[in-house]
Structure formats: structure tokens, C-alpha cells
UniProtKB/TrEMBL annotation:
<feature type="transmembrane region" description="Helical">
    <location>
        <begin position="396"/>
        <end position="419"/>
    </location>
</feature>
<feature type="transmembrane region" description="Helical">
    <location>
        <begin position="86"/>
        <end position="106"/>
    </location>
</feature>
<protein>
    <recommendedName>
        <fullName>1-acylglycerophosphocholine O-acyltransferase</fullName>
    </recommendedName>
</protein>
<feature type="transmembrane region" description="Helical">
    <location>
        <begin position="431"/>
        <end position="449"/>
    </location>
</feature>
<feature type="transmembrane region" description="Helical">
    <location>
        <begin position="55"/>
        <end position="74"/>
    </location>
</feature>
<feature type="transmembrane region" description="Helical">
    <location>
        <begin position="12"/>
        <end position="35"/>
    </location>
</feature>
<dbReference type="InterPro" id="IPR049941">
    <property type="entry name" value="LPLAT_7/PORCN-like"/>
</dbReference>
<dbReference type="GO" id="GO:0008654">
    <property type="term" value="P:phospholipid biosynthetic process"/>
</dbReference>
<dbReference type="GO" id="GO:0019432">
    <property type="term" value="P:triglyceride biosynthetic process"/>
</dbReference>
<keyword id="KW-0808">Transferase</keyword>
<keyword id="KW-0472">Membrane</keyword>
<dbReference type="InterPro" id="IPR004299">
    <property type="entry name" value="MBOAT_fam"/>
</dbReference>
<dbReference type="GO" id="GO:0005783">
    <property type="term" value="C:endoplasmic reticulum"/>
</dbReference>
<keyword id="KW-0012">Acyltransferase</keyword>
<keyword id="KW-1133">Transmembrane helix</keyword>
<keyword id="KW-0812">Transmembrane</keyword>
<dbReference type="GO" id="GO:0016746">
    <property type="term" value="F:acyltransferase activity"/>
</dbReference>
């Protein structure tokens, strides 16, 4: 068996641990399919917890489940013993343990060298545990003081231990997300809400949406495997890179970022297929006639939305969508004081939490600070664009915002890929820190050139 695994791993150019993870990861699809045949909510909870723990054991070893058990028990104990503060307690304890694992395992270095460990799955689990505790905490508060997301997701009673374990370890999202709310999970297992039997007929078939996600996954993996040998990250420290001209170096940064993203597109497409085929991916019906089923609960990326983004402001809406939603609900919105508008502080704090969640590598921290600057600069361009009545000038600003987003995103994500401070600064310095200077200049210009505010529109509210 070991020989076969080694041969297979060698054939596709990955390490044996990564191949083992990929096999277990793909296995979430048939495992998620079988949950459809489990009778009763209790059986589905047991099945979700057992299969999630089993796949983790096969992929990462026995210690992985011990790591998962720590934040799960801390979060449940906080809800059980101190409901009034359980959200804050779980937030800091959960992130504290995750940071400790990041430091101990130094997962970023392992991933760069072709290794794998349970830290990625622990990252997803941490967000689930925190959101569950915060929603239970919100159940004590009056509805008139809550935001819409809090009202929708609040928990009035404590989930049972088996419900909680099933939610945390549900194999369709256990390895790589997406993150979803425990209230949705409970309604799905109990066949309530949008999953309840209705007069419209039987539940919608998930097979068409699942096949679409699998075709997307195959295309993404094929493109990634083709591109990655042509754009290795080691080139950034190669003397030949420094001999290139400015535009060639900038172009290489773009291609490295473009190549790396297809790996994530593949992973999220597989996760999406697993959650869809379980039925949990169903998110309601369209308003068209006749109504059609929507399967976007598990959608974690809009590929064209990322690659052709007209503004950096839209990137959190199309990239790692469910984590971005989590950050908005549980960090960004909760830092806004009543009666006040959000500002750069809330944006920077949210991006900092996102950076810490990924790990303590300097490249992560720099990337997410860069992201906050990138979004702030894009907002300035958008305000100018909305304020002008000149059609030609408006189109120019739209193009400038698109080009700005493309440049700064791929410049910034080099830090996310290389991780070390030396390599990050060296790659940024090789293009004269253009992706850092541009956003700062735009933000400063935004204080000087203040266009008259146009009439509020739906598009502006989204910005």
C-alpha cells in the first residue's frame, strides 16, 4: 500500500501526505451523499461527527482529532457555564489555541515544502466554534438592538452535545470550509425551514449543481498543474529575476498570483460539490417563474468575479466568500458603535484578524494590511467615479479602478505566497513598492479631493 501511495504521489508530483489528504478530501463527496439516506436528525448528527472524525484520522492521524477537541470543548464549556460572555471568551480562547498551533507546526513552511497537517481544518473549526458561541450569546439580547444577521442566526437554546459535534465535524465542510451557521445546519438535519417538505413537490435535485462544481474543480486543477511549473516562487530569490526590467517583474508577480489562485479554486469547488450533494448547499428558490433552486450556500468563490474585479471593494464578496461573510458578521459589524459609521479602523481590525487566523507569518500580516490599504484606495476611486457626470471620465475611472485592483492584488498576494519577511520585502522592493505607494497616495488624495456626494443608490450602499 505504501509503495502504491508513493507511486501515485510521484506520478502527480505531490508528497504522500498531500496525496492522502487529497484522497480523503475527495471522499467527502460520496460520504456527504450518503448522509441523505440517514433516518432522523440524531442519526445525521452522529454520522456527521463520526465521518468527519474518521476522515481527519485517515488524513492527518489521531492527534488531529485531539486538536479539534480542544476548541470544541472550550467553546461548549463557555456556553454552558458563562452564557453572558461566552462569545468573547470563545473568540479569544479559540484564536489563542489556533495561534499556538500555528506557531508550533509552522504550517506555512510545511505547505510550501509539500507537507500537510490539520491546522487548515482547525482554522475552519475555530470559526464554527466562535460563531456558535456568539449566536448563543446573542440569544440573551433584545432583538431591537441586534443587526439583521444577529437576529437571523441567534440561538435561544443551547445545542445538545451531539448536535454541536455534528456541526463542528460535518465532513462536507470540515477540511476546507465553507463556514456556515449552526442554525442552518440544525434546520437541515431536522428537515425544517427551506428543507421542510412543501406542497411544491419533492426537494430539488442536487446532481446538476454537483456536476457543475466537479467540472469546475477538474478545470481548475488542470490549469494549476499546467501553470505551476512555469511560475515557481523560487524565482523571486533567483539572481536572474533582478536582471529583468520593471514590467517583466511586475508581470511575473501577476502570473504567480494568478497561478496560485487556481489551487484554491479547485479546493473550494470540491468542498462546494460535497456540501451541495448532501443537500445542505440548498439556499432557497429564485423569484423567477417557474422558481429554480439556488445552491450558493456552499459557494466560496466567484472565479470571474475575482479575475475581472472592477473594484477591490468587491473582492471580499467573491473570494473566500463564506469566511469573508464570517468576518463581516463577527468582527467588522461588531466593532461598529451604534449610531456611528464604520471607518478604516474596522477595516484594518478585520483584516488583522484574518491575517492572524491564517498564521503569524510576516507575509500574511503584510498581505492583509495591504488588503486594507487596497480596499481603502479603491473606495476613493469609486467615490470619484460616482460623483462625476462626465460619461467619458466615468469610464476612465472604472478602467483605472480595474487596473489598480489587478495590480495591487497580485503585488500584495506575493507576501501571502512566500510568507517570509525577507522574500516579501524583496519582491515588493523589486517593483519599487508600487502596490503600497499607490493605495496610500489615493487615500491621501481622497482627503484633498472630496467630490460632492451623489444621491445614494443601491450600488453605493453595497460599497
Amino acid at each position: 500500500m505504501d509503495f502504491d501511495m508513493e507511486s501515485m504521489a510521484l506520478a502527480i508530483g505531490v508528497s504522500v501526505p498531500v496525496l492522502r489528504f487529497l484522497l480523503c478530501f475527495v471522499a467527502t463527496i460520496p460520504v456527504s451523499f450518503l448522509v441523505r439516506f440517514m433516518p432522523g436528525a440524531f442519526t445525521r448528527h452522529v454520522y456527521s461527527a463520526f465521518t468527519g472524525a474518521s476522515l481527519s484520522y485517515l488524513s492527518f492521524g489521531f492527534s488531529s482529532n485531539l486538536h479539534f477537541l480542544v476548541p470544541m470543548l472550550l467553546g461548549y464549556a463557555a456556553m454552558l457555564l458563562h452564557r453572558r460572555r461566552c462569545g468573547v471568551i470563545t473568540f479569544f480562547l479559540g484564536f489563542g489555541y489556533l495561534i499556538g498551533c500555528h506557531v508550533y507546526y509552522m504550517s506555512g513552511d510545511a505547505w510550501k515544502e509539500g507537507g500537510i497537517d490539520a491546522t487548515g481544518a482547525l482554522m475552519v473549526l475555530t470559526l464554527k466554534v466562535i460563531s456558535c458561541a456568539m449566536n448563543y450569546n446573542d440569544g440573551l439580547l433584545k432583538e431591537d438592538g441586534l443587526r439583521e444577521a444577529q437576529k437571523k442566526n441567534r440561538l435561544l437554546k443551547l445545542p445538545s452535545l451531539i448536535e454541536y459535534c455534528g456541526y463542528c465535524l460535518c465532513c462536507g465542510s470540515h477540511f476546507a470550509g465553507p463556514v456556515y451557521e449552526i442554525k442552518d445546519y440544525l434546520e437541515w438535519t431536522e428537515r425544517k425551514g427551506i428543507w421542510a417538505k412543501s406542497e411544491k413537490g419533492p426537494p430539488p435535485s442536487p446532481y446538476g449543481a454537483t456536476i457543475r462544481a466537479l467540472i469546475q474543480a477538474a478545470f481548475c486543477m488542470g490549469l494549476y498543474v499546467y501553470l505551476v511549473p512555469h511560475f515557481p516562487l523560487t524565482t523571486f530569490t533567483d539572481p536572474v529575476y533582478q536582471e529583468w526590467g520593471f514590467w517583466k517583474r511586475l508581470g511575473y508577480q501577476y502570473m504567480c498570483g494568478f497561478t496560485a489562485r487556481w489551487k484554491y479554486y479547485f479546493i473550494w469547488s470540491i468542498s462546494e460539490a460535497a456540501v451541495i450533494i448532501s443537500g445542505l448547499g440548498f439556499s432557497g428558490w429564485t423569484e423567477s417563474s417557474p422558481p429554480k433552486p439556488k445552491w450558493d450556500r456552499a459557494m466560496n468563490v466567484d472565479i470571474l468575479g475575482v479575475e475581472l474585479a472592477k473594484s477591490a471593494v468587491t473582492l471580499p464578496l467573491v473570494w473566500n466568500i463564506q469566511v469573508s461573510t464570517w468576518l463581516r458578521y463577527y468582527v467588522y459589524e461588531r466593532l461598529i458603535q451604534n449610531g456611528k459609521k464604520p471607518g478604516f479602523f474596522q477595516l484594518l481590525a478585520t483584516q488583522t484578524v484574518s491575517a492572524v487566523w491564517h498564521g503569524l507569518y510576516p507575509g500574511y500580516i503584510i498581505f492583509f494590511v495591504q488588503s486594507a490599504l487596497m480596499i481603502a484606495g479603491s473606495r476613493v476611486l469609486y467615490r470619484w467615479q460616482q460623483a462625476t457626470s462626465n460619461a467619458l471620465f466615468k469610464k476612465m475611472l472604472v478602467f483605472i479602478n480595474f487596473a489598480y485592483t489587478l495590480l495591487v492584488l497580485n503585488y500584495s498576494c506575493v507576501g501571502f505566497m512566500v510568507l517570509s519577511l525577507h522574500e516579501t520585502l524583496a519582491s515588493y522592493g523589486s517593483v519599487y513598492y508600487i502596490g503600497t505607494i499607490l493605495p496610500i497616495v489615493l487615500v491621501l488624495l481622497g482627503y484633498i479631493i472630496k467630490p460632492a456626494k451623489p444621491a445614494r443608490s443601491k450600488a453605493r450602499k453595497e460599497q
